[in-house]
Specification:
By secondary structure, the protein is α/β, with parallel strands linked by helices. The chain has a single domain, classed as Rossmann fold (3-Layer(aba) Sandwich), CATH 3.40.50.2020. Helices cover about 30% and strands about 30% of the residues. It is built from seven helices and ten strands. The strands form three sheets. A six-stranded mixed beta sheet has the order 4-3-7-8-9-10, sandwiched between helices. Strands 1-2 form a two-stranded antiparallel ribbon. α5 links the parallel β3 and β4. α2 crosses α4 and α6 runs parallel beside α7. The protein starts with a helix and ends with a strand.
């Protein structure tokens, strides 16, 4: 059942309450230097530390549907790694749209799309996508946009399949790594995020212009 209209009718109080719960999981989190000095933090949505609570993933999915243009799309695309899978499934259940999850290993099936990706926290790899058809209108959904490497590869896969990207939606945005700018300048698509934060110093901080 399509729940988009019901979600679009959420009150400001309900939206603010959901957003406040989500922000608590992204702000004030320890920052450490990962591979190649990349600023990394552990969140429930990305690393399941602490474990993801059902209400939290529900809040995230509700707000992505609230702000997203799902009525103008016919497929959702994300990645299977980390928070992309559970988040996309929750969004799909609300919109009744089919979804496909890209993987970091080749499937070697007819119609599979592969694109090289450069990911800030893990290095280079190849992302593989199935299930997107020519002429479809896709919405990209993922957990966090940081340097934009994964999102760029996903969008290139979608376009290589002959589909159109309506917009890109993320729960978190690590502002200091400029992923949004890369997507908007390279593809000219609209990027929407729920929580903007800066991962510098000792702890993550909410972005002042959020």
């Amino acid at each position: 059942m399509n729940k988009i209209k019901t979600i679009k009718s959420l009150t400001k109080k309900e939206i603010d309450s959901k957003l406040a719960r989500i922000k608590k999981t992204f702000i004030g989190i320890p920052v450490f230097k990962g591979k190649n000095g990349y600023p990394y933090s552990l969140f429930p949505l990305t690393d399941f530390k602490p474990a993801m609570k059902p209400q939290l993933i529900e809040d995230m999915a509700d707000l992505l549907v609230y702000y997203g243009d799902f009525e103008n799309a016919n497929i959702i695309v994300s990645e299977a790694d980390r928070g992309g899978g559970p988040l996309t499934h929750a969004v799909s259940m609300r919109t009744n749209l089919p979804y496909t999850l890209a993987n970091w290993y080749p499937t070697e099936v007819e119609g599979s799309i592969s694109v090289k990706a450069s990911i800030g926290f893990s290095g280079d790899g190849v992302i593989n996508l199935n299930g997107v058809e020519k002429g479809q209108k896709a919405i990209l959904v993922d957990d966090i946009i940081s340097s934009g490497g994964t999102a760029i590869a996903l969008i290139e896969c979608i376009q290589k399949a002959g589909a159109h990207v309506v917009e890109a939606l993320f729960v978190g945005e690590k502002v200091n790594l400029n992923g949004r700018k890369k997507l908007e300048e390279r593809f000219g698509i609209k990027v929407k995020t729920l929580v903007k934060f800066i991962a510098t110093g000792t702890f993550t901080q909410e972005y002042a212009n959020s």
